[in-house]
Amino acid sequence: MPGDFLDVLDVTGVFVFALSGALVAIQHRMDVVGVLTLALVTGFGGGIARDLLIADLPPQVVRNEGLLLAPLVAGLTAMLAPRLADRLRQPVLVLDAVGLGLFAAVGATRASGAGLGLVPAVLVGTVAAVGGGLLRDLLADEIPQILVSGSRLYAVPAALGAGIVAVGHAASANPTLAQTAAVTVTVALRLLALHFGWHAPVPRRPIRLPRTRAPARPGRAHRSRRARR
What we know:
Elements: H1 2-27, H2 32-53, H3 65-80, H4 89-113, H5 118-139, H6 155-170, H7 175-196, H8 218-228
Helix pairs in contact: 1-2, 1-3, 1-4, 2-3, 2-5, 4-5, 4-6, 4-7, 5-6, 6-7
């Protein structure tokens, strides 16, 4: 039963993230190839990174037919429902938050099951959660949310959700309960951060790096010596 629940979370996470990628592609007026490409990359990016980190090869996406179909269904759903394109901003943010929670929980669970310790499991879960959204933003020619100064909490909720699963695994807690709690906390914290404007601390003063002078060209130095003569 826990394994079946984990597979459901995995497929749901891929579908939700892929749908967010497809909606972003529609927002940028991409054609059908662009929509499906962004759906595939967003849905699979975090999971492939997770599987590579825990040496689970070949990756799950090429071993599970449900995972392969999920981004295609998501992309077609976005294209066949044009009304969604008129209200893109809010759906994308909500779907992104749900995908963040699902991938954090699944990533940390698979990492813990592979024998990784508490901190590595949290790291893998966080990378899996933010990887798809990061690739989506880069391909859409946007600054990834995780890198924007003053952006709403993104990696922090993912790390917290992954930590809940990792701690639960270490304490031999019910995995389904730990995964459900992780998804709930991650999604709730992300949505609250979007609503109230919470963000990670930003340095008050920018760091000023010392300016280095470019070396003088030999010809210019030679001419200046001749002028002084």
